[in-house]
Design goal:
The complex is a heterodimer of chains A (about 210) and B (about 400). Chain A contains eight helices and no strands. With about 210 residues, chain A is mainly α. In chain A, helix 1 crosses helix 8, helix 2 packs across helix 6 and helix 6 packs antiparallel against helix 7. Chain A is globular, with a radius of gyration of 17 Å. The termini of chain A are far apart. Chain B folds into three domains: about 100 residues, no CATH class; about 180 residues, no CATH class; about 60 residues, Alpha-Beta Plaits (2-Layer Sandwich). Chain B is mainly α and about 400 residues long. A two-stranded parallel sheet of chain B has the order 1-2. Chain B has a two-stranded antiparallel sheet with strand order 3-4. Chain B has 17 helices and four strands. In chain B, helix 1 packs across helix 17, helix 2 runs antiparallel to helix 17 and helix 9 crosses helix 13. Helix content of chain B is about 60%, strand content about 5%. The chains are: A mainly alpha (about 210), B mainly alpha (about 400). At the A-B interface, helix 1 and helix 8 of A face helix 9 and helix 11 of B.
Chain lengths: ~210, ~400
């Protein structure tokens, strides 16, 4: 129960961290509320994968590496930079939906065109790995669990608790008839990318400098 | 016939004097109130008289010539320059520096500016806190006064606030009028949506961090007002960003494009203010019967608020600041101020007058004190060798 309650009590903060990425993304896709639901599920799946990867890491490396500030900064800084690249490409390249990826290099382009769910998944994964206070709290508690399964279970329940707050977001699809909002959403994604690139560089710089 | 022609300008002069008289009275009361307690002092009297004459001549010329933007711009640009001079001089006098220290912020000594308004709404609703280190009531530019002025201006002018009330807009308006012809003509349409994207991002990040993100990171006008003292790498990056934005969006791009690029392509407050155009009674319309599709209005609009699509519909885009430039420039007189719900065709002078009165009053409310203050500082400089006491 503890991780679920932790998720429920801190979910609004998770939402505050993820919404600046998720809302512009939904607006940018310009899909209706119904189409936004699978997009949200893909995003949440990516977020869950991020949590699970981190649950394993938290348990495996928890006592050795993760508690040190340096490694936090390197890992999260890297995640921020990847997220920034994804958002900037999505936001500032060709503004027509899906066609953004035409300018992506060879294999990546094929992957993105063939499997469009990769984008919300990647966004979910990378925003999931966010140094927000609830995530840090969950990480600290998970690192103290006795086994890997306990750590994974902890993060899954924490994820369920926080995800409830994401459910209303697909409702932004109600504005999908406003085509200009699609352009606005994409540009907002690009600006968020610039913001995350700053965070990523500062964090990586701090981490690498102390290695 | 010739008597009729010579009578026409005389009638126009009489009408202009008549409609200017109420404003003469209003401005007298406004300026007398602002200068209360300083009568008899020459250093106050000269700025008072000059400002009084300045605003009344401009209003009269607007009424007499029927041109709007030409005279509005003179006031608007002078107001912005006056604001910068007065504000910096006040800061130097009170604090000794344009840089804002942490102690100043803790004491709530930061003047509240309208640019912060969109960012304060969600945190205020959720936490009952104004996320700005200023005073709620009392002191210079407190939160309550600025909110009240903004609500009044939004109801009366909609986004017209950006051309008739914003004391920053005049800077780029001035720079945009330096060259006769633009060097850079085409800006892709998608960038005209950028202010809305900036608005979404700064509002979301302000709600997340409970701090005025736009002021911290992006506001270009901090370059000519006040800014945080550089005490860390983060503040150094923020400083580099807002100075670059000022040089790029307020100086270089307006000179190159002859447009107000900060207002039209970046300002989140402008984007937010655009929404108030929906509830405001005034708009600029294009009479399709008179329009000859020359697209001159598209070319002269300083905020990218008219495009071919909007001309064909006889309207401006939601971002119209009602500056009146397109109204002045239209060769066929097809563009005019308009009251929503009334016919577009026919006489438009009444609608223009109804808009100009509140518009010019707001300009005078914001600008007269700034112009007076700047003149006072300049006189102080001439007589004592220093702008500060």
């Amino acid at each position: 129960m503890e991780p679920l309650l932790l998720g429920l009590s801190n979910g609004t903060i998770c939402l505050a961290y993820c919404a600046p990425v998720l809302v512009p993304f939904f607006l940018g896709e310009g899909a209706g509320t119904r189409r936004n639901i699978p997009l949200l599920l893909e995003f949440l799946l990516g977020r869950l994968i991020g949590y699970l990867v981190f649950a394993v890491l938290a348990w495996m490396l928890g006592l050795l590496l993760l508690p040190t500030l340096v490694w936090h900064q390197v890992i999260f800084g890297g995640a921020y930079l990847l997220l920034a690249i994804l958002l900037v490409v999505y936001g500032f390249s060709n503004l027509k939906s899906r066609c953004s990826w035409e300018s992506a290099p060879g294999r990546l382009k094929t992957l993105l065109l063939r499997w469009p769910a990769a984008v919300p998944l990647a966004l979910g994964l990378l925003t999931g790995l966010n140094l927000c206070p609830p995530f840090l709290l969950a990480m600290t508690r998970a690192a103290a669990t006795p086994g890997i399964l306990h750590s994974v279970r902890f993060f899954v329940l924490f994820f369920v608790g926080t995800s409830i707050y994401f459910l209303p977001i697909p409702l932004v699809g109600a504005f999908s008839s406003l085509k200009s909002l699609q352009v606005v959403g994409r540009l907002a994604c690009g600006i968020m990318g610039v913001y995350y690139s700053y965070l990523g560089i500062v964090m990586l710089h701090g981490g690498v400098g102390h290695l | 016939m010739s008597r009729e022609i010579s009578a026409r300008p005389r009638r126009r002069l009489g009408k202009a004097i008549l409609v200017s008289l109420p404003f003469l009275l209003l401005s007298t009361m406004m300026l007398m109130g602002a200068s209360a307690g300083s009568q008899g002092n020459t250093l106050f009297l000269v700025p008072f008289l000059v400002t009084f004459a300045f605003i009344n001549v401009l209003f009269f010329m607007m009424m007499y010539t029927g041109k709007t933007d030409r005279y509005r711009a003179v006031f608007f640009i002078t107001m912005a320059v006056g604001f910068v001079i007065t504000f910096i001089a006040n800061l130097l006098e009170v604090r000794g520096s344009m840089a804002l220290s942490a102690a100043n912020m803790v004491r709530g000594e930061t003047p509240f500016c309208h640019m912060v308004i969109p960012m304060t709404l969600i945190p205020a609703a959720l936490t009952r806190t104004i996320i700005f280190p200023g005073r709620i009531l009392g002191g210079f530019a407190d939160v309550a006064t600025m909110f009240t002025l903004w609500i009044g201006a939004s109801l009366a002018l909609g986004r017209g606030f950006c051309s008739w009330g914003c004391f920053f807009g005049g800077l780029e308006d001035g720079f945009s009028r330096i060259r006769r012809k633009p060097v850079l003509r085409r800006i892709a349409e998608k960038w005209t949506y950028l202010p809305y994207a900036v608005l979404i991002v700064v509002v979301a990040l302000a709600a997340l961090s409970l701090s005025p993100t736009y002021c911290e990171w992006l506001c270009p006008f901090k370059t000519v007002t006040e800014f945080a003292a550089v005490t860390s790498f983060k503040v150094a990056v923020q400083t580099a960003m807002f100075v670059s934005l000022f040089i790029g969006l307020v100086v270089v791009l307006p000179v190159m494009t002859k447009k107000r690029t900060q207002c039209g392509l970046f300002c989140p407050m402008g984007a937010f203010q655009s929404l108030t155009n929906k509830v405001n009674a005034f708009e600029v319309r294009i009479d399709r019967e008179k329009c000859n599709d020359c697209m001159r209005c598209v070319g002269v609009c300083p905020t990218y608020s008219i495009d071919k699509a909007s001309v064909s519909k006889g309207v401006t885009r939601i971002s119209c600041t009602k500056c009146g430039k397109c109204v002045d420039e239209c060769p066929s007189g097809a563009v005019s101020y308009h009251v929503k719900g009334t016919p577009v065709t026919g006489r438009t002078g009444g609608a223009r007058m109804l808009f100009l009165y509140p518009g010019f009053i707001f300009l005078a409310v914001f600008g007269s004190g700034m112009i007076q203050g700047a003149l006072y500082r300049l006189l102080l400089l001439l007589t004592t060798g220093s702008m500060i006491k």
